[in-house]
Amino acid sequence: MFSVITSPIALSYGAAAEAKKMGDKLGIAYAAEAAAGGQVVAMMHTFCDGLGLKLASTVKLSSSAADYTVFCQQLQESGANSYFLAFASVTSQKITNQCFQQGTRIPQLLSDPAAVPAWKPDAGYDCGPVIDGVAPFFYTSIAGQKAYRDALSKYAPALAEAGESSSTGTFAWASAQLIAVAASTISTETRRIDAECPVRHQRRNPRRSRSAFDLHQGETSAVNCYFAWKVSGGNYVAPNGSTPTCAPTDAIAPIERAAIKAVGGSQRRQPIVYAEHSSRAIATR
After folding, report:
1. How far from the centroid of its chain's Cα atoms is residue 252's Cα?
2. pLDDT tens across 184-228, in order?
3. At residue 266, what are phi and psi to the nearest 5 degrees?
4. CA distances from 252 to 47, 175, 219, 224, 247 (A)
5. CA–CA separation, 7 vs 252, rounded Å?
6. Is the pTM of this model over 0.90?
7. Which has the minimum average pLDDT: 16-20, 164-168, 203-207, 234-238?
8. Among 13, 71, 94, 125, which is most exposed with the fewest C-beta within 10 angstroms?
9. Cα gap 127→117, rounded to integer Å
């Protein structure tokens, strides 16, 4: 088992941190049908005080509503400097467009796994910062991302040409590359692996198997670094290139410990590791 997905706790911290860069007030709207919507608000509340950020407006809305005028007006009147929508992509786009048509001109915080081609040409998304668990999927200066994009062009050219890609595909690619590297260094002999035996990712030298990916029964390793890029002028841009930002330990460790305890596990601290065959910087604490 290899960790290729950033902790949702770290991603929430990253969203709050990016919101703070645009001002001290954030507006949030979430789907009434999704239980996780309230958790988004709770998580943002957790980080707001430490970052000096305030939730100017938190609204629960039906995903099937025909009109979101009231929310758009509330958002503008709240004085929010940015906003976040926790809905399915189709609903988010509908709300974004309605609010833009009614004069909303503040950036929207975006999450890349939900990326859609409409982000580029839609003025409602312009200047929106994107919080991502992998290096920007379009940033081919990274060898791993270029390999992913080349493979996409080769095996799924229709998707590549239509721009139908996002970090979701990169997550899958990174996972497959890690498995491929691990598989190439193990024996084909079938044997039982004891649960206490660490699973190891072999990075540079296949004969030296010990690395930061050792896992043990009852322990988990959080990936607490994230990437930030943005939608700008009809394009995707990566101001930070391939450099990730790591959420501060003192801000998220207490929350992680509580979450891990709730599921009966314990946490294992680990250093940052950049996997050569992955399309992202895989980072652990």
Report:
1. 16
2. 877 665 555 444 444 444 344 444 333 334 445 555 566 889 999
3. -140, 155
4. 9, 25, 17, 9, 7
5. 10
6. no
7. 203-207
8. 94
9. 15
In 3D, which of 137, 98, 108, 126 has the Cα closest to residue 232?
126
